[in-house]
Input
Amino acid sequence: MTNNRELDVRAVPKPQRHPLIFAAFDDLDVGQALLLTNDHEPRHLREEFDRELPGSFGWESLGETSTGAWPVRIVRTTRTPLPRIVVDTPALLAALEPGQGGSVWQLDPARRDLDANIIALPPGDTIDTHDGPDLDVLLHVLSGSGTLGTETGEIPLTPGALLWLPARSQRRIDAGADGLRYFSVHHRKPTLNITPMPPRTEG
Output
């Protein structure tokens, strides 16, 4: 097995370079190296590798050549990305401002199959009634209190509760007097659209 493969991206349009480099890296076996030639020091590429594949690669910058090229040797060290901690939830929640709301944390590696968020709702805040997306969602209450409204009633939300929200199910979330913070996870989707409920009419 040859330990090195070569890729020169100097003539490749910049928007296409990183996807091409990652595709070439994906084709490596463990222990193989990609000898990359770029026309600048690839600092942003290194940041992307650190974000997407921490602990799964070796990086050796060979320095700028007399012709202005920047060769880098990137070694594949694991078969797959490594499991890792992505957030310290207690520390994150402790650092939030009392009235802070919205999505306060998101799973951010681009190369993933899941979407995950930590949502903070200030006291008394509401996510209005809507039909959920065309996929199942798991919701785990981290702190605070509130209620989840369904088509037939309400489910109390208390710390530790783990809820399954089936695809397209109607839901409404109301935060209690101490606010509500919860973690949600679902299969990744390019866009996630919430469909508001039509206004009620008097019958």
Summary: The domain at 89-196 is CATH 2.60.120.10 (Jelly Rolls).
